Amino acid sequence: MRSSVIIATWLSFRGVQTHALGPFEKNIAARADHLNIATTALKPLLSQNASVILPTDNDWDALQIRGTSPRIHPKFNAIVEPATEADVQKTVQFASKFGIPFLAVSGTHGWTKTLNNLPYGIQINMRKLNSVTVDPSGNTATIGGGTLQWEANKVLYAKGKQAVLTLCECTSIAGPMLAGGHSMLQARHGYTLDNLVSARVILANGTAVTASSSSNSDLFWALRGAGQSFGIVTSLQLNVYDIPSTWTISTFIYRSDKLEAVLDAVNKLDGDAMRSQNLVINGVGTRIPPMDPQNPMIIYTLSYQGPEAEALPYFSKFKAIGPITVKPSTNVNNMELYKITQNSVDSAACARNKNSMGSGVSLPSWNTTAARAAFNIFAKMTADRRFSRSVFLLENYGMQGVRAVDPSLTSLSLEERQYPAVANPTIWWNGTAAVGQADAEAYGEQIRQALFAGLPKGAKKHTYVNYAVGTENFNQMYGYDTARVQRLKTLKKAYDPENRFGFYNPVPLA
Ligand SMILES: Cc1cc2nc3c(=O)[nH]c(=O)nc-3n(C[C@H](O)[C@H](O)[C@H](O)COP(=O)(O)OP(=O)(O)OC[C@H]3O[C@@H](n4cnc5c(N)ncnc54)[C@H](O)[C@@H]3O)c2cc1C
Question: Where do the FAD-binding PCMH-type domain residues begin and end (predicted)?
Fold first, then answer.
């Protein structure tokens, strides 16, 4: 009897949410009684510090805002903030039992539009699970499933440690890690997922398991490359390393006619087996009207974890290309790093509630003709005032550590393990107008097709799962290796036969 009331309640919300509610509307109040019935059934199952938040509650609006809203707006009609692993488990059991869709939210920076397919349901907001403890061995840390990058960095730094964290302070640890985790330390230690020792995971059927090389090893394999499709990570154990040194950083700003020269220099460095694993190369195309009112500029930041004397030979190659400004920074510690590389929580990159869209392309090297064609489209797009603040990311973080990992150990695609160059036009614009979104998507797609046109013969199109727009096919994100993708699909069927984890660039069941 009780069950049927709850089911009826949630089904009635589905109708309301799908047809009547926009992402920021609160006119669900008329249904508040029904929501209360449903959540009244869940609330007593949760621990004291857990919360259940409804559209009529004060916190509701703030918890709808994402790093990527309003473009990305999964439709929620209740939010659960678990405070313990058991809370996550009970919420998933409750939702699964009654067929209520749900989605884990940690850093809110997921930007694939497949997230908008959540028709209605529960936001499982992981932010109360935000702990970081360096384990007694000093070689690993145990990190809560809702922890953000800056929170982990702060604790680790205080202990003289660093981990393979991603570049922006505002994303979570678990979100990027589950499909990769591009990092300033990847050239030494591999992607974030290569540093995962074990994870506690809530499966679709509500069981809580440990995944590691010795426990549920199939799941552990799938988690590291396609993790968002397999479960909710409540905590994870990650390798940590002693901080070896401060960073030496130099930022070079070039006029756009230097694009080919800069990309040639990057290709040469990437092809050099002796390229230092301490070096990170980070490029951005962006408009700086006072410097050039007509064309976007090209900014390259070279970061080297080590002394200036070791970094200078690399910096001199970029200086020789003829930047119009050079800004050096020495002795940069791990807390200052994000600010200097413009990836801190208060940076433009971390701005919230501003449409942002990636359109990722991973490449075996830069084809300068294709890059010029793509850059010209970027220049045209940013001449349009709506998109003028967009940036064109040109990333080469170094691949030695990534390639050193046996590819059979993780489900990560072979392309993601090999391709050193990542381009990601990151398009920002304001407003909710459909035309803005359609134009942004069209520009993003034109830019990436221009880059793909320069692929060497036989190379396949690849997009990093976490930089996908949400229009890519399965193979473009998860790879073309038949055995690997078949294993992923088989495991998906075994672990999540109802496709409950089906909203983040999902692995299909068949
Ligand atoms: C500004 C910005 C900077 C970025 N920088 C980097 C970078 O440096 N390196 C890089 O590799 N990627 C980067 N990305 C891409 C990033 O990896 C993805 O956007 C990622 O999904 C963000 O995770 P989140 O937790 O912040 O976002 P959320 O939207 O909260 O989560 C994204 C998805 O991850 C899943 N998820 C979240 N938490 C959990 C959990 N605890 N257990 C299971 N599943 C979970 C859910 O499916 C969720 O929909 C960046 C993106 C943006 C917008």
Answer: 72-243
